[in-house]
Amino acid sequence: MNILLGLLAIVVVLGIGFLMSNNRSNINYKGIGIMLVLQLFTTWFVFNTKIGKIIITGISAAFDQLIQSGRAGVSFILPNVANVGEDGNPMNVFFLDVLMIIIFFAVLLSVLTYLKILPTIIKYLGAVISKVTGLPKVESFNAVNSMFFGQSEALLAIKSQFHHLENNRLYIVSASAMGSVSASIVGAYLEMLPEQFVLVAIPLNMFSALILGSIIAPVKVSKEEDHVDIKEVSNANSFFEAMGNGALDGGKIALIVAAMLVAFTASLDFANFLISSVFSGVTLEQILGYVLAPLAFLMGIPSGDLIQAGSLMGTKIITNEFVAMLQLTDIMANQPNELSDKTIGIVSVFLTSFANFASIGIIAGTVQGIDSKKGAAVSKFGLKLLIGATLGSVLSATIAGLFL
């Protein structure tokens, strides 16, 4: 029954994308089919094979070591901060234990880029995806690039190609940027959610963004137009300059995330105050839970968890993934039997992306800085972009649910 519901959810997601399509006769069904198979294989391999579990455990252990190293840096500048609760047990301080870790990950990202390690991986992986799926090279490169860099950085890396991008191609690269996550904040996610779900969500979301983008805004590019001339992401002149640039970028990201969390959490609290003033005991999260419960049901979430899961999903869409992740983390820590393991897995995959209202402004602003006309185009299809990216998150989470 759960498998049938999951397959139905996939059909519904792809069907909505088809109804939204700008040019249905141009859809690359073969490429979409290949990417769906790759998603199913990836998820099966990670969740259901011994080798896959060993690989995820190894990657998780590597991230754990990186996180510990990041904490060493935090402890060096704040050695006297008491990280102990009233009961004497260790107490998690979100800004120190999550946000500050972003700085170290940003440094690693910057150094790997300067050393040409990441650009080489991205270049060849993008070429393989383009060859296998038949998608244009720029879109394939950008999808892989978006797995490592933030929304703005990924789009800036293809700025020299923007004159080739008509609106449909612009939609696909924007969808990849919105449907991805930045490697610099993966460590922060791993501090809040189970590692296997965060790590599997990264490739799943890359393919989901390309699948939905290829349905909603299908493209066909001639061989003359299908070439990649990518601007180097790193502008550092030395190893240590790359470290310094990464540290500064990571600090900015941490402060931006902190500022957004303050703004969104406070706004959510105020919205709940206004709603409860009119409807006693009702919160915005509860409303979102009921609105998204049917979708959660199709995704394979058990009936007893539908409202709670829908609430978390809705919170992520209207605020950002960190707000929803913190709520899920609180539930797992303080109400361990509130949600089933399957629900936690599906919701975790759904939350691991930038698909929210705030991302529309970030992406449109970045494109505006590159090309004002194309920035205006992104602003016009901004809501369609959010719907497509959210459908991509639903697709990824549903596929993960098939194997849980």
TrEMBL record:
Keywords: Cell membrane, Membrane, Transmembrane, Transmembrane helix
Domain Concentrative nucleoside transporter N-terminal: 8-79
Occurrences of domain Nucleoside transporter/FeoB GTPase Gate (ranges): 96-193
Compartment(s) of residence: Cell membrane
Pfam families reported in the protein's UniProt record: Gate, Nucleos_tra2_C, Nucleos_tra2_N
Transmembrane segments: 29-47, 94-115, 170-190, 196-217, 253-275, 287-307, 344-365, 385-403
Origin: domain of life: Bacteria
Keyword Calcium: no
Family: Belongs to the concentrative nucleoside transporter (CNT) (TC 2.A.41) family.
Protein name: Nucleoside transporter
Provenance organism: Pontibacillus salipaludis
